[in-house]
Amino acid sequence: MLRIGVIGTGMIGQDHIRRMTSVLAGVEVTAVTDVDVETAKRVADALPGAVVHGSGEDLIADPGVDAVVVCSWGPTHEQYVLACIAAGKQVFCEKPLATTEEACRRIVEAEVGHGRRLVQVGYMRRYDAAYRALKAVVDSGRIGAPLMMHCAHRNPGVPSYYEKESAITDTAVHEIDMVRWMFGEEIVAVRVLVPRKSRNGGDLQDPLLFLLELAGGAIVDVEISVNIRYGYDIRGEVVGEDGTAALGEPSPVMVRGGGRLAMPVPADWRERFIRAYDVELQEWIDSIAAGGPPVGPSAWDGYAAAVVSDAGVAALRGGDRVGVTLMPRPALYEVAP
Ligand SMILES: NC(=O)C1=CN([C@@H]2O[C@H](COP(=O)(O)OP(=O)(O)OC[C@H]3O[C@@H](n4cnc5c(N)ncnc54)[C@H](O)[C@@H]3O)[C@@H](O)[C@H]2O)C=CC1
Ligand SMILES: O=C1[C@@H](O)[C@H](O)[C@@H](O)[C@H](O)[C@H]1O
């Protein structure tokens, strides 16, 4: 049994604890912590034998914790991931790896200094059946070389920690990672277009259109709408030279009645990506329980996403086309995105 400590027992922390205790195999949650101590205690009450630690650092140092899952807010990730590397413990860090290029660079440098991969980042779309099927079509060459991709990332509402830049750093960062993986290329420049604001968006710039240019010349557009009310709607269509391929509808059921064809829209990311999170965490658990390095998105992927995300924030703040330059990729991260 791999003994896991969870830092951050909010929405995704609780969801990952649920899957680690009642869905996945070979794992138990032995410790939790949260700055909101009452929440941490309430979550631990449902976990027989689990310890509540007063800080993330204490949890990481606990000899009863083999590996750590970080589910606290993005700006707190760096300190915990660095502490895990210093302790030589495997860490699964929810996205984003950290919220700035500099913070991600420090993590990459610490891991390279350690000499062995210890970090996996929670970019779960790489594990989603629909995205995997879309990538298989693109890789097969059936639609010719991919030229463009149209994406939509629609949320019904935003979490409490959401700020203006979060549309890029917290939301579009999923497309940043997915696009690098889908095309197997780095993103070299970004732009942000700002449409008329939604009356549902408060102080946020909602919606916005995020444009990504890839090294090979393909262009990706991403609609980010984070207060669209009707549900959680994730779309993606790749346009190739000879055809197109799109994500299918996530609902397993369609209802015809009363002159209408209807299907449910997922309520949020927990529902839409439920199986992707299961596969992502089970593969992480299995790989590290077997003593190997994690095989999912690496600290390098987290760093690359942060550099693009920083460029996106600059574009949102008034830049036009903002270029993206990555540092040379260390040998530890030799595989393509
Ligand atoms: N992969 C995915 O699809 C998703 C990833 N996330 C990511 O997971 C992280 C958490 O998001 P949510 O669960 O939605 O937020 P949340 O606000 O529901 O939960 C975060 C928890 O972390 C705690 N926390 C904050 N600072 C802390 C610190 N320094 N030490 C310990 N605990 C601390 C908060 O008290 C809160 O209980 C974010 O990085 C977010 O981007 C969130 C939702 C979906
Ligand atoms: O990661 C997630 C949230 O943190 C973020 O706030 C949402 O916009 C994303 O859709 C969700 O997958």
Automatic annotation (TrEMBL):
Q: What is its EC number?
A: 1.1.1.18
> Which ranges carry the Gfo/Idh/MocA-like oxidoreductase N-terminal domain?
2-123
Q: Which Pfam families does the UniProt record give?
A: GFO_IDH_MocA, GFO_IDH_MocA_C
- Molecular-function annotations in GO: inositol 2-dehydrogenase (NAD+) activity; nucleotide binding
Its quaternary organisation is: Homotetramer.
Recorded family membership: Belongs to the Gfo/Idh/MocA family.
Q: What is the designated name of this protein?
A: Inositol 2-dehydrogenase
Organism of origin is Couchioplanes caeruleus subsp. caeruleus
Identify the gene encoding this protein. iolG
